[in-house]
Fold this sequence. Notes:
4-stranded antiparallel beta sheet; 34 helices; transmembrane helix; membrane
Amino acid sequence: MDIVLITAVIASLFLVIAAAEPLAARLRLPYSVILAVLGMMIGVAALFFLRTELTDALNPVAEAILGLPIRSNVFLYVFLPTLLFQATLGMNLRRMLDDWVPILVLAVVAVVVATLSVGYALAWVSPLPLVACLLIGAIVSTTDPSAVVSIFRSISAPRRLARIIEGESLLNDAAAIALFGLFMGFVMRGVPDPEIGPALARFPILIGGGAAAGWLAARVGLWVMALFGRHELAVISVSVALPYLAYIGAEQSIGASGVIAVVAAGLTLNLAGPGRLPPQAWLNLREVWDLLAHWAGALIFILAALLIPRLLEGTRPGDFLLIGVVILAAIAARAVILFGLLPLLTLLRASPVVERPYRTAILWGGLRGAVTLALALAVTESFRVPVEVKRLVGILATGFTLFTLLVQGTTLRMVIGWLGLDRLSSIDEAISRQVVAVALQTVREDVARTTEAYALSRDIVRSEAKAFGERLELAVKAAEDTTDILERDRITLGLIALAGFERETILDRVRERTISGAMAEPILSDADRLIEATRVGGRNGYQRAARRSVAYGGAFRLAVLLHNRLRLSAPLVRMTSDRFERLLSQRLILRDLGAFVDTRIRRIHGPRVADLLHELLARRIDIVETALEGLRLQYPGHAEELERRFIRRTALRMEEREYTAMREDGLIGAEVYTALMQDLAGRRALAEARPRLDLAVQRAVLVRQFPFFADLDEAALRRLSRSLRTRYVDAGRVIVRKDTPLRSVYFIASGAVELERAGQTWRLGRGEMFGQMAILSDRTRRTEVRTIAPSTLLVLDETRFRSLLKRSAPLRNAVRASAEKRGIELSSLEEMEL
């Protein structure tokens, strides 16, 4: 075939892609539906001109279109990895984890149920063997990521609804393709009635192997990209190779799921990339992948739609009944999961609540597309599949895909509107009127200054000011007439606005490199949680989310357990350093929010709401400062190095801004500017490196802070620090229980504990100790000790404590003072002095 003609056809397809977007906006239809319709029209036109006798002039073009090398492997190995990888890069993973249960239920359980439902329904009404029916069920059970994601983004669906449907569409491909491979093997071997159990038992291997392969590929890719960190084009090139190598490696090397490998690689890069790559390189990488995915998504729809006329050839009247059976069985299976299993999981507290309108939208939003057609095409390409099976697979899969795109896709916007998911709440509508009024007042002031600065004609200014004043008067009146906003609603709206501004401030600081890319994702997730928690729970929801943002999570407690029990310190070191930097970044952001409350929120909601927001903001700052102070007490040297790093990065940002301003003003040329920026980049790379946290060194620093160790020389201090064990305990944990033997003494490096004995309580803080009385007195231990704040304890066993007590007079004095305070006699202490 003429290469020039093929090139012209491909270039023309890009023109179709360019025209489809404005056409979709004009017709208010989903972009992917327009692409599918245009692709079908091109395919039908090519068949028509090739077979008609009206003219032969367009035959070469028709042959070029129909002769494009469209095979199932092109979709699965070229386009699908691109779409999946870009979608994972653009996901807010930490927010998606909040809904991981419904996402996994829809991505795995729903696929299996749909496969079985469609398979057994077809086996009941068609002459096909059960295995062929199950194969069709697997083909039509996967929602297409390029169809679903583009449609839900185009209709401005609620964020949570979009997250659930996008997460499902990304992960269910793996389950569907795995089932497809199993049943395809049975069909080619001529097994009429396979055993479902052993087939499903391979799922963990396929998924686990794919996840491991994708993670390993991403880690290697990140290591290479970090080496090329200064060369953005090299970094982007490595990222382009990553999903394809992960897919092929998983599929061909270990027989695992290539789809899962791509998703795992994308998730790993999403989480680790911002911290390992320069911010500008990461931003450019994301933009390149957005463009690649746009082209891939559009081409996969057009090329798949070109196949539809050929796949539907040979359709018989009875086939429409089978298509109806597939549609009903697939929708019924999805409804059982959404309205049966998910509410049951919510009742059992295994899943967060997914509201009924959301479930209805998810039911109708289960669109199929190019992935389903590609799997059907793979069946029709196999010479080992019976002819009738190939014919029905092509017709049923294509018919069902057309139904989801042309019926569900075109009506999804209407369904979203009918469910009320596209409308602002009464509170949001009220606040929009308030915002318009304040914005127009600000615009009037700015316009007045502009007209004075440029000395414009007074008549023109007067006429325009009159028209603008009328609009402003209407906006102010509408805002003042809003009587349905209670004060608690105004507080909620003010907090939502404050959290939104916090999010924008974080993005600004990331762009300025004041906050590192590694910290951007978790801090942005905290801001998103603040917004959503405030929408749901008002002031209380905001406060809960704020406390959660500084709380120790389950992963941190696990790292502490590994350190305390197994002496594995690496996870704790990494997470403690992350916590340090995260708290420093939060403090930086929170201190910028007060001005926003005064300049914006006070004008919209009044002084009472503004004062309350200042109070809530002050509480958040106190919480962050307290958490930071606790870390400083534990790791004073590390805290100092992190703050020095922050100052160096801020200075470099200011230096870069000065060079850029001089370049724009023409004070320096391009050559000088380039040399200065190269030198700046080298110094920035050094400043970006985070100081290493050494728990052993920090322990030695902590020991010197205790006054009763002041008389020990350096050698004794080093020996003591080696003998002490560091133990991290969260608030509310019991350290010592009543009537239990105690063989260690605990020194409080940071935090606080409460001792309870015979109805009396004592509280001890930093620089104090406990446990010495149980060792030195002969009384039965009846005291319980629990932490009342996250605490760092230094633990010394009984033998070393007695030895240290003999050598240290200040320690003996501290023990005696503590005993006298509680009325306890310590005869053994007197013997040590003798």
